[in-house]
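Weekly sync, protein design subgroup
Attendees: M.S., D.O., the rotation student, P.L. (late)

Item 1: inverse folding check
M.S. brought a backbone from last month's batch and wanted to see whether the design step gives back something sensible before we order anything. D.O. pointed out we never logged the input encoding, so this time it goes straight into the notes. Structure tokens as presented (401 positions):
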């Protein structure tokens, strides 16, 4: 199978992960009304997917290092399909247990999603090197971004039939990479033959060796996803409850800021290659966009200003995430990559899970909500700059090889 087809198969994995939450964001109010849920239960529909994924990711990474990425990806996609079908029949059953069944399906979906984006990144690191690796990792973030752009539209359109119909789309999408990976990606040799306890000790040494720059990068990547999904959750309820937009038009309103993120992700992935100095500069640009736009949103809360600021802020995420992905993926040896990338993926999923939950609490005071978000960005930025010395040519140093 040529590199282009492999890239498409890998790209569909983060697309499935994004579809798992982003497609539901515009229809959450409808689900809440149909199932008679409170606000906490509604926000948990997203987190029931993300939290299990976050908890399962490290174990998926360890198993993939020992038994191969291919097996774990196939198993993960099977779980995504199974969980989707359970969630899909939850409303059809038509009983008082609909929400419970929906939650069970979402949890199984989430466990399956643990083997999508992190293993796609790890497998890209295994199969490609140098500039090609940087390009493929950038393309994965583009698939991620495209998913975020079109998933809300897909969710809103399919919900015109029935909100639960969306869950029957997941198996149709997941079956493509399932067949492609199972058939065309070669089975890797067993990655590690040492005992589990020895393996864990080795990984502990890796984290200790790279902790100076790795931890702040992990946190920044997780914070990016936290702000993204928290802001979109707030936007979903704002434009429906205050401005009366729903259906297709509501879904398309997400396309502008998410489109900016997709464009900058694609540009960044093509440009960075292995140029670590450029990565450092783009990280600074992305951080600057985030800080400035969330500061503006502390002061002004109209829909037009909110959409403008989110567009610029998400454009900043498009500069940040491909650079962080490349640094994390390329920082360790092949036999360590699955675990390290999975830890990074776990932090990202925690951000996705906590975003809707925490923003739902903060939404009672919009000014305070954006102030808290602004302060988190400032603190994360200071941590990254101080620990990685990003203001100097730090990427030439030993801390990031």
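Designed sequence read out in the meeting:
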């Amino acid at each position: 199978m040529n590199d282009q087809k492999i890239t498409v198969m890998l790209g569909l994995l983060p697309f499935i992960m994004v579809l798992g939450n982003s497609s539901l964001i515009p229809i959450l109010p409808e689900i809440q009304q149909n199932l008679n849920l409170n606000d906490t239960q509604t926000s948990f529909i997203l987190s029931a997917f993300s939290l299990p994924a976050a908890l399962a990711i490290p174990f998926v990474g360890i198993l993939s290092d020992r038994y191969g990425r291919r097996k774990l990806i196939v198993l993960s996609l099977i779980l995504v399909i199974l969980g989707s079908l359970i969630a899909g029949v939850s409303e059809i059953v038509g009983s008082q247990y609909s929400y419970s069944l929906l939650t069970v399906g979402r949890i199984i979906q989430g466990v399956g999603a643990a083997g999508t984006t992190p293993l796609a990144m790890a497998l890209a690191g295994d199969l490609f090197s140098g500039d090609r690796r940087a390009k493929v990792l950038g393309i994965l973030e583009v698939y991620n971004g495209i998913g975020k752009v079109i998933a809300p539209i897909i969710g809103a359109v399919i919900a015109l039939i029935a909100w639960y119909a969306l869950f029957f789309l997941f198996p149709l999408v997941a079956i493509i990479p399932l067949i492609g990976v199972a058939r065309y990606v070669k089975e890797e040799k067993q990655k590690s033959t040492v005992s589990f306890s020895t393996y864990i000790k080795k990984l502990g040494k890796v984290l200790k060796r790279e902790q100076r720059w790795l931890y702040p990068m992990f946190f920044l990547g997780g914070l990016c996803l936290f702000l993204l999904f928290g802001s979109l959750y707030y936007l979903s309820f704002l434009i429906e409850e205050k401005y009366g937009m729903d259906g297709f038009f509501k879904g398309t309103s997400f396309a502008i800021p998410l489109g900016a993120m997709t464009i900058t992700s694609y540009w960044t992935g093509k440009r960075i290659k292995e140029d670590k100095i450029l990565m450092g500069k783009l990280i600074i640009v992305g951080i600057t966009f985030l800080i400035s736009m969330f500061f503006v949103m502390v002061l002004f809360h109209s829909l037009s200003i909110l959409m403008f600021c989110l567009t610029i802020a998400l454009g900043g995420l498009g500069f940040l995430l491909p650079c962080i992905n490349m640094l994390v993926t390329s920082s360790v040896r092949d036999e360590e990559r699955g675990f390290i990338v999975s830890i990074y993926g776990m932090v990202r999923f925690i951000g996705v899970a906590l975003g809707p939950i925490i923003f739902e609490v903060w939404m009672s005071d919009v000014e305070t909500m954006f102030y808290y978000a602004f302060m988190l960005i400032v603190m994360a930025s200071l941590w990254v700059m101080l620990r990685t010395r990003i203001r100097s040519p730090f990427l030439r140093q030993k801390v990031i090889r």
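Discussion: Confidence is low (pLDDT under 50) at residues 391-401. The two ends are 31 Å apart (CA to CA).
Action: P.L. to compare against the previous round before Friday.
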